[in-house]
Design brief:
Number of strands: 2
Shape: elongated
Strand order of the largest sheet: 1-2
Order of helices and strands: HHHEEHHHHHHHHHHHH
Number of domains: 4
Length: about 350
């Protein structure tokens, strides 16, 4: 804080030494730890210690000094009455991305200036604006390295507002920018979805034989989003056999499982085309039975979801309960149903709509 003290004495040379110490103590109390933090100090922070004119002179001196120090590498953007500093940050070999802070919601910019976490809706708006800006400039899908660089750049510029931390806010998690990077990547997937999934919307299933398997990264981590279907005519015949088997109940369960496995590719085609639930129930009645639904999801995701959910909840149970408890949602037990019910309650959903109870 010695440099801060020199800045105060330079701006207010006639200020008594005891007042200088009081100003420094106040600055430390509100979180100033380095010269860069002086840019966030407001006149109201020093009320009661300095006179109004002294406060304004000191704030102006802080601002002038910061601008002088960062002039060679800083571009200033005007938003309302705030001067926002944009510092080029490079990561690895990726070129620095000029974040369009001037387009961001005012509430978000106020939050980052005050070193506070922005509201979720403002953070989502930041992600939307950045991806729209990136796609508007390049007209092509940005690579993961570029998105990671953008996320890291934002975190380095405003760590208090965006970096990943534990619930208590004391410990940094992972690379600090994983969650923001994932949000950026998911936004790209949503925007590019018509291009990524266009092949699954073809009306003629006969073309599926020549369709190339899409990249896993385009389909939210699924490993068998839309496998290539061979001999669609035979598969359609098997589908009709399955519908008959469901109505007559004459087929052995082992045969039903085999035929459901054989027709997985055209099941996915029907789902990916956006068929309604009633249409899927009519065409694939066995798909709505637990044993066949679990097989389908296991093939789709590459792991048994019915056991993975319980395993992951057991690992993250304490963190989830601590977070929900800090938000006033108490989870009395520790089984998966109670944890999921607590999450639903936090999001103001009805837990009864998530579970099907067998009599």
């Amino acid at each position: 804080m010695e440099h801060v003290k020199e800045s105060i004495q330079k701006a207010l040379p006639s200020l008594r030494s005891d007042l200088v110490e009081s100003v420094i103590s106040t600055l430390e109390m509100i979180g100033v730890s380095c010269v860069e933090d002086l840019g966030f100090v407001r006149t109201e922070d020093l009320e009661g210690i300095l006179k109004p004119i002294q406060c304004r002179r000191l704030i102006q001196a802080f601002s002038t000094e910061l601008q002088a120090d960062s002039a060679p590498t800083t571009e200033l953007l005007q938003l309302n009455s705030h001067q926002l500093q944009l510092s080029p940050v490079t990561s690895g070999s990726c070129e620095a991305y000029p974040v369009p802070w001037h387009k961001m919601p005012p509430q978000l910019m106020i939050a980052v200036e005050e070193k506070k976490r922005p509201k979720p809706k403002d953070r989502r708006e930041l992600v939307r604006i950045i991806i729209d800006d990136v796609l508007g400039k390049d007209q092509k899908r940005p690579g993961r390295a570029k998105l990671r660089n953008i996320a890291q750049q934002i975190i380095e510029q405003y760590p208090c507002s965006f970096q990943d931390r534990e619930v208590n806010g004391l410990k940094v998690v992972g690379t600090r920018y994983d969650s923001l990077f994932i949000q950026l990547e998911n936004r790209v997937e949503n925007v590019m979805r018509p291009l990524s999934f266009g092949s699954t919307k073809r009306q003629c299933e006969d073309e599926m034989a020549s369709q190339k398997k899409s990249l896993t990264s385009n389909h939210y981590g699924c490993v068998q989003w839309q496998p290539t279907a061979e001999n669609v005519t035979n598969l359609k015949f098997t589908q009709e056999q399955l519908k008959t088997a469901f109505q007559t109940n004459h087929f052995p369960e082992s045969d039903v499982r085999r035929m459901m496995a054989e027709t997985y590719s055209i099941q996915r085609a029907a789902i990916n085309r956006g068929n309604s639930i009633s249409k899927l129930l009519e065409d694939w009645p066995f798909l709505f039975e637990a044993i066949h639904l679990f097989y389908h999801t296991t093939t789709l995701l590459g792991f048994p979801v019915q056991t993975r959910l319980a395993e992951d909840l057991s690992k993250k149970e304490k963190t989830i309960k601590d977070f929900l408890g800090s938000r006033g949602v108490d989870i009395p037990g520790s089984d998966a149903v109670q944890v999921i019910s607590g999450i639903a309650k936090f999001f103001k959903e009805k837990p009864t709509q998530l579970f099907c109870q067998n009599e």
